[in-house]
Specification:
The structure is a homodimer. The first copy, chain A, is α+β, with helices and mostly antiparallel strands. Chain A has helices spanning 8-19, 26-36, 42-54, 121-125, and strands at residues 59-61, 70-72, 79-83, 89-94, 101-103, 107-120. Chain A has a 3-stranded antiparallel sheet, with no helix packed on it. A two-stranded antiparallel sheet of chain A has the order 1-2. In chain A, α1 (8-19) crosses α2, α1 (8-19) packs across α3 (42-54) and α2 (26-36) packs across α3 (42-54). Chain B binds a DNA duplex through residues 2-7, 9-10, 25-27, 39-44, 46-48, 65-69.
DNA sequence: CTCCTTATCAGTAATGATTCTTAATTAGAA
DNA sequence: TTCTAATTAAGAATCATTACTGATAAGGAG
């Protein structure tokens, strides 16, 4: 419903994410924006990252636990692996077999967290569907 | 290294999780404990849930985004699906095929988040391994 | 059984990521 | 150009979780 406007802030946030190839967090996007271009408030960065991922311009990577969420310019379907020590994120392609992961670089898998999201049967039936939950 | 003691609080937290079959969050465990048994402080509940999952008594389900983490008494390997509306968690068995998920009850999949954790090649090599990252 | 070390506790302040609030600004249709 | 709703900056608020502090108690040594 909402009419989406083209703002310079939104354009800067988008181009910043597209220029960063390291799955940046909102904080890192904010830092990069602050360093390079004009000043954009942190709330605006968060809001635009959410908006851009909703409209499919970028992709949001919801990290487990209290780790900060990341954003990805790569829209092709793939999964991610986080290094427990340095926090680096590595792309993972999922082949036909469940056990056949292929990594963009070597990675020692210690654990995995898969969470599917959607609707349970009850909520699907009485679907006044407001996306109550985050 | 740390010698683990047997405390009543730890025993209560464990038995509470074991008695709850609905993947409770730390807050829900705290509520249940407060309602039934004696008083245990919230910090103690959090600490014991972490400790119990580290020692393999229960399993921690790190939820993506800002959703509260959950705990599971079921140690058998399986994944989880969260309802976007009511937040209910449903068990998912992963068969041989990547596309072959089987659910404990009907669920409409709208999205999935898979995050592998472990060590990238650099961190694996210079492994003074302190688990710096959460 | 008593003593002693130190893991653990209760209570609460602090943290960190994210969202919300409010008043001012501005994109873009009329 | 004018008007209005979308957007912004700045900072307060929220929420899950962790850290801190002084008090308590588990369990091995004697």
């Amino acid at each position: 419903m909402a009419v989406t406007r083209n703002t310079v802030q939104r354009e800067i946030v988008l181009s910043t994410v597209l220029s960063m190839c390291n799955h940046p967090s909102a904080e890192e996007v904010y830092d990069s924006v602050s360093k390079n271009d004009s000043h954009i408030s942190k709330g605006t960065v968060y809001r635009n990252l959410a908006l851009l991922s909703q409209t499919g311009k970028i992709r949001k990577i919801a990290m487990p636990g209290t780790l900060a969420d990341r954003y990805d310019f790569n829209l092709k379907p793939h999964f991610h692996a986080v290094c427990r020590k340095c926090g680096k994120i590595i792309d993972v392609c999922c082949k036909e077999r469940a056990d056949g992961f292929s990594f963009s670089e070597p990675f020692k898998v210690e654990g995995m967290e898969l969470v599917l999201s959607g609707l349970c049967s009850e909520c699907d039936e009485n679907s006044s569907d407001k996306s109550e939950l985050k």
